Each structure stands twice: as structure tokens, then as C-alpha cells.
């Protein structure tokens, strides 16, 4: 998708947003490998023995994408961010359904270690999702930056492009959000 000829993906995305359902059908084969790479990125941080595989995660996210009204997607990076968010929601919903009767509210994980280590179980994923939702209530922009960087694997420049922010703003918000999440996940009081 990164080598798309003359913005074909962007053009199809814009046609889909305007209501052309056939554009989404034409878009699917062009973005499948990119979405599969993104799903693989998400699955690497899941627990061992997870029953979902990358292709199933792509399919679930794509079903959610076409099931709702078209999202105003401006370009490739924005589409990747939206797809990443949908994949994260699929994994969180899956974890919630598996742990509906056994939820561990005391689970604490180190936000710094999360980028390098796989999430060991559903409780950690749910704790992270709860912390991100709390952050989203305090500062939606910071929560979106964390989602795109942490779950979507987007670089700070790509996030700045998607959100229409300066690189300095993205870096500053990432640093603040990371500190807030670390405190939240460690159980320390947040000022």
C-alpha cells in the first residue's frame, strides 16, 4: 500500500466515504497485505495460544469497518490508524468476553515494558484498555496518540500527519500520556 500508484488507495477511500460501496470492494485487495501486517503487529503482543490469527483479525476489523457508516478517512496513514483502532477493539472485545466472569481488577503492568513484551493474558489487555479509556476521558488527543503509536505502530511523524499536529506536539503528548499511563498501570495515584 505504501507504493500505491498515484494515490489509488486514497482515491478509493475518498470515494467510499462519499457513499460508493463498490470503492470499498476495490480497496480491499489493495490494502489486505498492509492490514495483515498491522494485525500481525497486534497479535505479537497477545498471549501465547491466542485463538485469533492475523487473517481472522483483519477480517473482523474489516467487517466492523464496513458494518458502520463510512469513516471520514483522508489518506493512507489515517486509514491505518482507523484499522488499528478497530483491531484493538476486536481484541479487547474478545478478551472481555473470555473474562466476563473472572475479571481481575488488580492487574498492574509496566507501560514501558509493554512495547517490548507480549501481553501475557486478557487481564493485562483489559487493564491497558481501561487505562486508555480513562486517559481518553481526560485528554482524547493523548489517547489517540497512544493508540496509533502503541497499537498501530505508527511513527510520530505519521501520527502528526494523520492528526494534523506538529511533531513537537505529538512528542510532548506522547511523553505526558506515557507518564500518566505508567502511573495508572502501576497503581500510583495520578495528580
Q: How is this structure best described in words?
A:
The protein contains 9 helices and no strands. With 191 residues, it is mainly alpha-helical. It has one domain.
In brief, what are we looking at here?
It contains nine helices and no strands.
Measure the end-to-end span.
43 Å
| Number of helices, where a helix is a run of at least 4 consecutive DSSP H or I residues | 9
Tally of structural domains: 1
Biggest beta sheet attributes:
none
Quaternary assembly: single chain
- Strand elements, count: 0
* Spatial shape: globular
Low-confidence regions: 103-110, 112-118
Q: Beta-strand level of the residues, as a percent range?
A: under 5%
The proportion of residues forming helix, as a percent range, comes to 55-70%
**Rg:** 17 Å
Write the element-wise H/E pattern from the N-terminal end onward: HHHHHHHHH
Amino acid at each position: 500500500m505504501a507504493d500505491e500508484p498515484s494515490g489509488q488507495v486514497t482515491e478509493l477511500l475518498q470515494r467510499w466515504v462519499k457513499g460508493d460501496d463498490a470503492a470499498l470492494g476495490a480497496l480491499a485487495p489493495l490494502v489486505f497485505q498492509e492490514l495483515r501486517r498491522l494485525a500481525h503487529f497486534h497479535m505479537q503482543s497477545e498471549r501465547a495460544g491466542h485463538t485469533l490469527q492475523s487473517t481472522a483479525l483483519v477480517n473482523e476489523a474489516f467487517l466492523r469497518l464496513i458494518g458502520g457508516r463510512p469513516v471520514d478517512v483522508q489518506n493512507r496513514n489515517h486509514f491505518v490508524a482507523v484499522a488499528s483502532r478497530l483491531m484493538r477493539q476486536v481484541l479487547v472485545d474478545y478478551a472481555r468476553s473470555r473474562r466476563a466472569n473472572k475479571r481481575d481488577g488488580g492487574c498492574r503492568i509496566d507501560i514501558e515494558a509493554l512495547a517490548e513484551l507480549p501481553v501475557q493474558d486478557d487481564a493485562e489487555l483489559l487493564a491497558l484498555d481501561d487505562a486508555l479509556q480513562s486517559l481518553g476521558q481526560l485528554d482524547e488527543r493523548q489517547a489517540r496518540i497512544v493508540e496509533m503509536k502503541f497499537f498501530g505502530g505508527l511513527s510520530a511523524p505519521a501520527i502528526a500527519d494523520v492528526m494534523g499536529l506538529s511533531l513537537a506536539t505529538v512528542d510532548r503528548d506522547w511523553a505526558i500520556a506515557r507518564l500518566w499511563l505508567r502511573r495508572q498501570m502501576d497503581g500510583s495515584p495520578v495528580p
